[in-house]
Amino acid sequence: MAKTFMKPEALSDQHTHYCPGCTHGVIHRLIAEVIDELGIRGRSVGIAPVGCAVLAYNYFTFDFQEAAHGRAPAMATGIKRVRPDLMVFTYQGDGDLASIGMGEIVHAANRGEKFVSIFVNNAVYGMTGGQMAPTTMPGQRTTTSPFGRNVEDSGMPIKVAELLSSLQTPGYITRQTVLKPKYIVKAKKAIKKAFTYQLEGRCFSMVEVVSTCPTNWGLTPHEAIQWAEDTLLSYYELGDYKVPE
Amino acid sequence: MSKVLMKGNEAIGEAAIRAGCLNYFAYPITPQSEVAEYLAHRMPEAGGVFLQGESEVAVSYMIFGAAGCGAIVFTTSSSPGISLMSEAISYIAGAQCPAVFVNIVRGGPGLGGIQPSQADYLQATKGGGHGDYRLLVMAPASVQEAVEMVMMAFPLAEKYRNPVMILGDGLIGQMMEPVDFPENLKTEPTNKDDWASNGMDTRGANSPNIVKSLFLDNKLLNDNNMALKAKYDRMKKEEVRYDTYNLDADYEMLIVSFGTMSRVNRTAIDNLKEEGLEVAMIRPMTLFPFPEEAIRQASLKENCKAVLSIEMNMGQMVEDVERSVQGKVPVKWYGTCGGDVPTPEEIMNFIKEQK
Predict the structure, then answer these.
(1) Number of neighbouring beta carbons within 10 Å of residue A128
(2) Where are the domains of chain A?
(3) Taking CA atoms, what residue in B is nearest to A62?
(4) Domain B242-353 in the same topology as domain B4-238
């Protein structure tokens, strides 16, 4: 009987350390599928962030480097500039990319660095235990906003895709999600497009993926998906924000 | 090759290219910006990579990324910039990647000043960043020596898979001196296939290399730190370099001094000799590893009454000098840290006061 579905070669047999209902696993798989389909595993280098995905390299079967908090785009720049033939991507959460690493991502995008950033936005710090992120929703309770995010002193959540798409340098900036199968299919297409742009040496790409954190949201996996769809997707609207000419 | 007259900062840039380093990332800061200005045209001409990053923080992680995928890479900065790079230097040391950092030191703390200083001695030799790591630190006393040390730094970084720092000062960077570029200090590329994330196809492998400094398992973290310590112990055995001046004389005082400061001391020593006072000097060329044994032996010479640590800072290396002398003779310190290099007369007066 012919095999019609299998684990991507770019994915390892590692048991997951992610929580039930977390979408990192889905996003990891999409990246692995794309890398398999493009046949670039042997020249791929991922940059792991600081956060829940710091151990991302345990799940993939190609080279990785581990960054300090927020610095993945600078490391990817270093690799891509000295080895343009390598296929480089950063994998970053919202605390990592939108807070401590905001400088690095903006300048990498503005220089038009030819790598891909996968930006997993779940509106909270995960690994450190559920603190407020720049992407936390108004009124959202976290361990450092116990009364709910007060926009009077913390400002409004940062829309990273919109912010990066305001740069004049050409790039591919898109926001996707993996909350339901219909979204997953689109997210994979976006990730594949981003890696294809890199293969062609065309532009910087950022794929923002609206994600979940049931543990730190204090919700069940099912409730988390519902909350994300109702609350996050109405603020973080899906779609392509910028495409190269 | 015949000698050419070059400014220190430009000579440092040229030295890296001659050594075989064709990858440079940097951010402007006085008094070393001429390195970046020089390499902005010279690096592309040599077929290399030049990139001005958005901050010293970003630049230091560009260095980490490039070093982690196997490239020979370096950056230059000055004191406040090195503070910003110290986080990455810790990561690079922890992940055991080779990289070269040049610090053209200016006065501190804070913004301090832009004139020559040696106030980053402790930062360079005792840490700067967090965790148990050391840098191999070399301190040039001339533009020629800066060239040679930069060229030596790359193979040393490769040998130890550890960051190497050149600790110059504003004077070394800004002054012009005749230099030649030794032909024999070319860095040979080493095989990094067993650790670098250079792409599995590059090394014909089917298993990934992970460049990282995180070891959540206590034993693995301890093992990594033990491996680092073994490298630092080996540096102490194999890499100690120093120069001596008037050490054959029957000296009453022994100066320990490095870099620009040591040049002034030579004049003071010559002048005092004419006045009938014999003073010798040991000039550490490596600050880590420190020439402890040479200083200890020299301090034990029959008529040596004191060891004088003379530095352009408020007393930093003096702690290592005390450690080396081990209390056998008194250790005194003299220094300034405003940006003015002490004159030979100031040094002579200080030495005479110690009699």
Answers:
(1) 15
(2) 24-242
(3) B208
(4) yes
Check if B91 contacts A (Cβ < 8 Å).
yes
Question: Which residue positions in chain A have pLDDT lower than 50?
Answer: none
CATH number of B4-238: 3.40.50.970
Residue A17 near chain B (CB below 8 Å): no
Domain boundaries, chain B: 4-238, 242-353
Tell me the mean pLDDT in the region B130-154.
98
Is domain B242-353 classified as CATH 3.90.1300.10?
no
- Nearest residue in A to B64, CA atom: A75
Q: Which of A42, A79, A81 sits opposite B200 (nearest CB)?
A: A42
Whether ipTM > 0.95 holds is yes
Tens of pLDDT along B74-95? 999 999 999 999 999 999 999 9
DSSP labels, B247-276: TTS--SEEEE--HHHHHHHHHHHHHHHHTT
Q: What CATH number belongs to A24-242?
A: 3.40.50.970
Question: B1: pLDDT confidence band, cut at 50, 70 and 90?
Answer: low
Residues B161-172: what's their mean pLDDT?
A: 97
Contact B79, B165 (CB under 8 A): no
What one-character-per-residue DSSP string does B90-114 give? HHHHHTT--EEEEEEEB--STT--S
Nearest chain A Cα distance for residue B108, angstroms: 26
Prediction pTM value: 0.97
